[in-house]
User: Which sequence fits this backbone?
Protein backbone atom coordinates (compact mmCIF):
# COMPACT_ATOMS: atom_id res chain seq x y z
CA UNK A 1 0.00 0.00 0.00
CA UNK A 2 1.10 3.60 -0.52
CA UNK A 3 -0.01 7.18 -0.11
CA UNK A 4 -0.46 9.96 -2.62
CA UNK A 5 -0.49 13.72 -2.25
CA UNK A 6 -3.89 15.37 -2.31
CA UNK A 7 -2.67 18.98 -2.29
CA UNK A 8 -4.08 21.37 -4.90
CA UNK A 9 -2.01 21.85 -8.05
CA UNK A 10 -1.56 25.36 -9.47
CA UNK A 11 -1.11 25.61 -13.26
CA UNK A 12 -0.93 29.16 -14.69
CA UNK A 13 -3.34 30.49 -12.06
CA UNK A 14 -5.49 27.38 -12.43
CA UNK A 15 -6.48 25.31 -9.42
CA UNK A 16 -6.71 21.53 -9.65
CA UNK A 17 -7.93 19.05 -7.05
CA UNK A 18 -8.30 15.28 -7.01
CA UNK A 19 -10.80 13.18 -5.09
CA UNK A 20 -10.24 9.46 -4.86
CA UNK A 21 -12.45 6.41 -5.28
CA UNK A 22 -14.00 5.02 -2.10
CA UNK A 23 -14.28 1.44 -0.83
CA UNK A 24 -16.90 0.48 1.73
CA UNK A 25 -14.94 -1.91 3.95
CA UNK A 26 -17.55 -2.76 6.59
CA UNK A 27 -21.12 -1.76 7.38
CA UNK A 28 -24.00 -1.10 5.01
CA UNK A 29 -22.87 0.66 1.80
CA UNK A 30 -25.97 2.84 1.58
CA UNK A 31 -25.44 4.06 5.19
CA UNK A 32 -29.13 4.98 5.47
CA UNK A 33 -30.06 2.59 8.25
CA UNK A 34 -28.85 4.45 11.36
CA UNK A 35 -25.78 2.23 11.63
CA UNK A 36 -21.99 2.29 11.38
CA UNK A 37 -19.57 2.07 8.48
CA UNK A 38 -15.84 1.85 7.82
CA UNK A 39 -14.65 3.07 4.44
CA UNK A 40 -11.45 4.33 2.86
CA UNK A 41 -10.20 6.19 -0.21
CA UNK A 42 -7.64 4.58 -2.47
CA UNK A 43 -5.24 6.01 -4.99
CA UNK A 44 -5.72 3.68 -7.95
CA UNK A 45 -8.69 5.67 -9.24
CA UNK A 46 -9.64 9.32 -8.94
CA UNK A 47 -11.51 12.25 -10.40
CA UNK A 48 -9.73 15.55 -10.99
CA UNK A 49 -11.29 18.97 -11.52
CA UNK A 50 -9.48 22.04 -12.82
CA UNK A 51 -10.66 25.60 -12.27
CA UNK A 52 -9.23 28.34 -14.49
CA UNK A 53 -10.11 32.04 -13.99
CA UNK A 54 -12.06 33.35 -16.99
CA UNK A 55 -14.22 36.26 -18.10
CA UNK A 56 -17.34 34.10 -18.45
CA UNK A 57 -18.44 31.21 -16.26
CA UNK A 58 -17.92 28.07 -18.36
CA UNK A 59 -18.55 24.39 -17.60
CA UNK A 60 -16.55 22.36 -20.14
CA UNK A 61 -17.90 18.98 -21.26
CA UNK A 62 -15.50 16.04 -21.15
CA UNK A 63 -14.60 14.76 -24.64
CA UNK A 64 -15.44 11.17 -23.66
CA UNK A 65 -17.83 11.24 -20.72
CA UNK A 66 -20.03 14.05 -22.11
CA UNK A 67 -20.06 12.90 -25.72
CA UNK A 68 -22.52 14.78 -27.96
CA UNK A 69 -21.12 13.88 -31.38
CA UNK A 70 -21.63 10.36 -32.76
CA UNK A 71 -20.72 8.37 -35.87
CA UNK A 72 -24.32 7.27 -36.40
CA UNK A 73 -27.69 6.80 -34.75
CA UNK A 74 -26.64 3.25 -33.92
CA UNK A 75 -23.53 4.58 -32.17
CA UNK A 76 -25.65 7.02 -30.15
CA UNK A 77 -28.12 4.34 -29.02
CA UNK A 78 -25.37 1.87 -28.09
CA UNK A 79 -23.64 4.60 -26.12
CA UNK A 80 -26.81 5.41 -24.20
CA UNK A 81 -27.50 1.73 -23.51
CA UNK A 82 -24.01 1.22 -22.10
CA UNK A 83 -23.25 4.57 -20.46
CA UNK A 84 -26.61 6.21 -19.81
CA UNK A 85 -27.52 9.81 -20.49
CA UNK A 86 -25.38 11.52 -17.93
CA UNK A 87 -21.77 12.68 -17.76
CA UNK A 88 -20.00 15.01 -15.35
CA UNK A 89 -21.25 18.40 -16.54
CA UNK A 90 -24.46 18.09 -14.54
CA UNK A 91 -22.42 17.27 -11.42
CA UNK A 92 -20.26 20.38 -11.82
CA UNK A 93 -23.32 22.54 -12.36
CA UNK A 94 -25.07 21.09 -9.32
CA UNK A 95 -22.18 21.73 -6.92
CA UNK A 96 -21.86 25.29 -8.25
CA UNK A 97 -25.52 25.87 -7.39
CA UNK A 98 -25.25 24.29 -3.94
CA UNK A 99 -22.03 26.19 -3.19
CA UNK A 100 -23.59 29.50 -4.29
CA UNK A 101 -26.74 28.98 -2.21
CA UNK A 102 -24.77 27.98 0.88
CA UNK A 103 -22.57 31.07 0.62
CA UNK A 104 -25.58 33.31 0.06
CA UNK A 105 -27.46 31.86 3.03
CA UNK A 106 -24.42 32.23 5.28
CA UNK A 107 -23.46 35.71 4.03
CA UNK A 108 -20.14 34.56 2.56
CA UNK A 109 -18.95 36.96 -0.15
CA UNK A 110 -18.05 35.20 -3.44
CA UNK A 111 -18.87 38.00 -5.87
CA UNK A 112 -16.78 39.42 -8.70
CA UNK A 113 -14.95 36.42 -10.18
CA UNK A 114 -15.77 33.92 -12.93
CA UNK A 115 -14.09 30.67 -13.90
CA UNK A 116 -13.98 27.73 -16.27
CA UNK A 117 -14.44 24.24 -14.80
CA UNK A 118 -13.26 21.05 -16.49
CA UNK A 119 -12.86 17.51 -15.21
CA UNK A 120 -11.35 14.11 -15.87
CA UNK A 121 -11.83 10.75 -14.19
CA UNK A 122 -10.54 7.19 -14.42
CA UNK A 123 -12.99 5.73 -11.88
CA UNK A 124 -14.82 2.84 -13.61
CA UNK A 125 -18.55 3.38 -13.96
CA UNK A 126 -21.11 1.24 -12.12
CA UNK A 127 -18.56 -0.32 -9.78
CA UNK A 128 -19.67 1.09 -6.43
CA UNK A 129 -16.51 3.22 -6.13
CA UNK A 130 -18.29 6.60 -5.81
CA UNK A 131 -17.20 8.10 -9.10
CA UNK A 132 -19.91 10.77 -9.18
CA UNK A 133 -19.25 12.06 -5.69
CA UNK A 134 -15.52 12.16 -6.44
CA UNK A 135 -16.14 14.66 -9.25
CA UNK A 136 -18.35 16.78 -6.99
CA UNK A 137 -15.88 16.63 -4.09
CA UNK A 138 -12.94 17.71 -6.27
CA UNK A 139 -14.99 20.57 -7.75
CA UNK A 140 -15.99 21.81 -4.29
CA UNK A 141 -12.33 21.90 -3.25
CA UNK A 142 -11.55 24.04 -6.31
CA UNK A 143 -14.36 26.48 -5.46
CA UNK A 144 -13.20 26.75 -1.85
CA UNK A 145 -9.69 27.74 -2.94
CA UNK A 146 -10.72 29.98 -5.83
CA UNK A 147 -12.97 32.11 -3.64
CA UNK A 148 -10.62 31.73 -0.64
CA UNK A 149 -13.39 30.55 1.68
CA UNK A 150 -11.95 27.24 2.85
CA UNK A 151 -11.68 28.66 6.38
CA UNK A 152 -15.33 29.77 6.29
CA UNK A 153 -16.85 26.49 5.10
CA UNK A 154 -15.71 24.00 7.70
CA UNK A 155 -14.61 20.50 6.80
CA UNK A 156 -17.51 18.91 8.67
CA UNK A 157 -19.98 20.81 6.44
CA UNK A 158 -18.46 19.83 3.11
CA UNK A 159 -19.76 16.23 2.82
CA UNK A 160 -23.29 17.56 3.26
CA UNK A 161 -22.75 20.02 0.39
CA UNK A 162 -21.46 17.23 -1.86
CA UNK A 163 -24.48 15.10 -0.95
CA UNK A 164 -26.85 18.03 -1.58
CA UNK A 165 -25.41 18.48 -5.08
CA UNK A 166 -26.11 14.85 -5.93
CA UNK A 167 -29.59 15.06 -4.43
CA UNK A 168 -30.21 18.01 -6.77
CA UNK A 169 -29.90 15.45 -9.57
CA UNK A 170 -32.06 12.81 -7.94
CA UNK A 171 -29.11 10.59 -7.01
CA UNK A 172 -30.04 8.48 -3.98
CA UNK A 173 -27.08 8.37 -1.62
CA UNK A 174 -25.89 8.69 1.95
CA UNK A 175 -22.97 10.45 3.60
CA UNK A 176 -20.50 7.56 3.77
CA UNK A 177 -18.89 8.17 0.37
CA UNK A 178 -18.72 11.94 0.71
CA UNK A 179 -17.22 11.88 4.20
CA UNK A 180 -14.52 9.42 3.15
CA UNK A 181 -13.68 11.49 0.06
CA UNK A 182 -13.61 14.82 1.90
CA UNK A 183 -11.56 13.58 4.84
CA UNK A 184 -9.50 10.96 3.03
CA UNK A 185 -7.87 7.87 4.49
CA UNK A 186 -9.71 5.34 6.66
CA UNK A 187 -12.96 6.67 8.14
CA UNK A 188 -15.21 5.16 10.80
CA UNK A 189 -18.71 6.65 10.92
CA UNK A 190 -21.65 6.40 13.28
CA UNK A 191 -24.64 7.57 11.24
CA UNK A 192 -27.20 10.04 12.47
CA UNK A 193 -30.91 9.28 12.12
CA UNK A 194 -31.42 12.76 10.65
CA UNK A 195 -29.67 11.75 7.43
CA UNK A 196 -31.82 8.76 6.55
CA UNK A 197 -33.36 8.43 3.09
CA UNK A 198 -35.61 6.07 1.20
CA UNK A 199 -33.38 3.62 -0.69
CA UNK A 200 -35.14 0.38 -1.76
CA UNK A 201 -37.76 -2.22 -0.84
CA UNK A 202 -35.42 -3.25 1.98
CA UNK A 203 -35.44 0.35 3.14
CA UNK A 204 -39.24 0.37 3.12
CA UNK A 205 -39.32 -2.88 5.08
CA UNK A 206 -36.94 -1.26 7.57
CA UNK A 207 -39.29 1.72 7.89
CA UNK A 208 -42.23 -0.66 8.37
CA UNK A 209 -40.49 -2.34 11.30
CA UNK A 210 -39.70 -5.67 9.64
CA UNK A 211 -38.06 -7.61 12.48
CA UNK A 212 -35.68 -9.54 10.23
CA UNK A 213 -34.45 -6.38 8.49
CA UNK A 214 -34.15 -4.45 11.76
CA UNK A 215 -32.13 -7.18 13.47
CA UNK A 216 -29.96 -7.75 10.39
CA UNK A 217 -29.15 -4.05 10.09
CA UNK A 218 -28.15 -3.98 13.73
CA UNK A 219 -25.81 -6.90 13.01
CA UNK A 220 -24.31 -5.02 10.04
CA UNK A 221 -23.72 -1.97 12.23
CA UNK A 222 -22.09 -4.16 14.86
CA UNK A 223 -19.82 -5.65 12.18
CA UNK A 224 -18.40 -2.18 11.55
CA UNK A 225 -18.02 -1.57 15.28
CA UNK A 226 -16.13 -4.82 15.75
CA UNK A 227 -14.14 -4.08 12.60
CA UNK A 228 -12.85 -0.84 14.09
CA UNK A 229 -11.51 -2.81 17.07
CA UNK A 230 -10.00 -5.45 14.78
CA UNK A 231 -8.19 -2.78 12.77
CA UNK A 232 -6.86 -1.05 15.87
CA UNK A 233 -5.65 -4.37 17.28
CA UNK A 234 -4.36 -5.54 13.85
CA UNK A 235 -6.43 -8.71 14.18
CA UNK A 236 -6.40 -9.73 10.52
CA UNK A 237 -8.21 -13.01 11.05
CA UNK A 238 -11.09 -11.25 12.79
CA UNK A 239 -11.25 -8.59 10.06
CA UNK A 240 -11.53 -11.29 7.38
CA UNK A 241 -14.39 -13.00 9.22
CA UNK A 242 -16.21 -9.71 9.62
CA UNK A 243 -15.93 -8.91 5.90
CA UNK A 244 -17.46 -12.28 5.02
CA UNK A 245 -20.16 -11.82 7.63
CA UNK A 246 -20.94 -8.37 6.22
CA UNK A 247 -21.56 -9.79 2.74
CA UNK A 248 -23.59 -12.73 4.02
CA UNK A 249 -25.88 -10.43 6.00
CA UNK A 250 -26.42 -8.19 3.00
CA UNK A 251 -27.12 -11.19 0.77
CA UNK A 252 -29.71 -12.55 3.21
CA UNK A 253 -31.55 -9.20 3.27
CA UNK A 254 -31.45 -8.19 -0.39
CA UNK A 255 -31.50 -11.62 -2.04
CA UNK A 256 -29.49 -13.00 -4.96
CA UNK A 257 -31.69 -11.44 -7.64
CA UNK A 258 -30.97 -7.94 -6.31
CA UNK A 259 -27.24 -8.58 -5.90
CA UNK A 260 -26.76 -10.15 -9.31
CA UNK A 261 -25.06 -13.38 -10.40
CA UNK A 262 -21.86 -11.71 -11.62
CA UNK A 263 -21.41 -9.76 -8.37
CA UNK A 264 -21.93 -12.90 -6.31
CA UNK A 265 -19.48 -14.80 -8.51
CA UNK A 266 -16.72 -12.26 -7.77
CA UNK A 267 -17.15 -12.85 -4.05
CA UNK A 268 -17.24 -16.62 -4.50
CA UNK A 269 -14.04 -16.64 -6.57
CA UNK A 270 -12.24 -14.81 -3.75
CA UNK A 271 -13.63 -17.17 -1.14
CA UNK A 272 -12.49 -20.14 -3.22
CA UNK A 273 -8.87 -19.35 -2.25
CA UNK A 274 -9.73 -18.47 1.35
CA UNK A 275 -9.77 -14.70 0.87
CA UNK A 276 -12.42 -12.56 2.53
CA UNK A 277 -14.56 -10.53 0.15
CA UNK A 278 -17.49 -8.13 -0.03
CA UNK A 279 -18.84 -5.42 -2.32
CA UNK A 280 -17.01 -2.10 -2.45
CA UNK A 281 -20.42 -0.43 -2.50
CA UNK A 282 -23.72 -1.63 -3.91
CA UNK A 283 -22.14 -3.88 -6.54
CA UNK A 284 -19.97 -3.83 -9.63
CA UNK A 285 -16.69 -4.49 -7.81
CA UNK A 286 -15.54 -6.30 -4.67
CA UNK A 287 -12.79 -5.75 -2.15
CA UNK A 288 -10.80 -8.91 -1.32
CA UNK A 289 -8.55 -9.36 1.73
CA UNK A 290 -5.88 -12.06 1.84
CA UNK A 291 -4.86 -12.56 5.49
CA UNK A 292 -2.41 -15.34 4.55
CA UNK A 293 -0.16 -13.02 2.56
CA UNK A 294 1.48 -13.01 -0.90
CA UNK A 295 0.94 -16.69 -1.69
CA UNK A 296 -2.79 -16.28 -1.20
CA UNK A 297 -2.76 -13.13 -3.34
CA UNK A 298 -1.16 -15.11 -6.16
CA UNK A 299 -3.85 -17.79 -5.88
CA UNK A 300 -6.51 -15.08 -6.00
CA UNK A 301 -4.97 -13.48 -9.08
CA UNK A 302 -4.86 -16.85 -10.86
CA UNK A 303 -8.49 -17.68 -10.06
CA UNK A 304 -9.66 -14.22 -11.08
CA UNK A 305 -7.83 -14.47 -14.38
CA UNK A 306 -9.56 -17.79 -15.09
CA UNK A 307 -12.93 -16.20 -14.29
CA UNK A 308 -12.25 -13.12 -16.42
CA UNK A 309 -11.93 -10.66 -13.54
CA UNK A 310 -9.25 -7.99 -13.12
CA UNK A 311 -7.36 -7.66 -9.82
CA UNK A 312 -6.07 -4.21 -8.81
CA UNK A 313 -3.88 -3.91 -5.67
CA UNK A 314 -5.30 -1.19 -3.44
CA UNK A 315 -3.20 1.91 -2.70
CA UNK A 316 -4.72 3.58 0.37
CA UNK A 317 -4.70 7.39 0.24
CA UNK A 318 -3.82 9.37 3.36
CA UNK A 319 -5.94 12.25 4.64
CA UNK A 320 -6.99 14.89 2.11
CA UNK A 321 -7.09 17.62 4.74
CA UNK A 322 -4.49 20.31 5.28
CA UNK A 323 -2.69 20.82 8.61
CA UNK A 324 -5.25 23.29 10.01
CA UNK A 325 -8.18 21.08 9.05
CA UNK A 326 -6.52 18.03 10.57
CA UNK A 327 -6.04 19.92 13.81
CA UNK A 328 -9.73 20.84 13.79
CA UNK A 329 -10.65 17.22 13.17
CA UNK A 330 -8.51 16.06 16.09
CA UNK A 331 -10.30 18.50 18.36
CA UNK A 332 -13.68 17.22 17.16
CA UNK A 333 -12.66 13.62 17.78
CA UNK A 334 -11.35 14.41 21.24
Assistant:
Amino acid sequence: MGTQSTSPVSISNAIEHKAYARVGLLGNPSDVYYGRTISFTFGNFWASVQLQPSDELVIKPHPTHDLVQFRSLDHLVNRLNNEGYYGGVRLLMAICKVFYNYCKENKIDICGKNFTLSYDTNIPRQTGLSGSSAIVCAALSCLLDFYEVRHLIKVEVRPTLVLAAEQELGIVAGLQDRVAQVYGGLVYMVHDLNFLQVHSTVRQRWLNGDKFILSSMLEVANVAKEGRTALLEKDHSKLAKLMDCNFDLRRSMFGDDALGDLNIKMVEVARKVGAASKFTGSGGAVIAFCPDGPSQVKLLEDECQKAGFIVVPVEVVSSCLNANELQTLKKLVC
The CA atoms of residues 18 and 48 lie 4 Å apart. The chain has a mean pLDDT of 82. The first strand starts at residue 9 and ends at 11. The chain is about 45% helix and 15% strand.
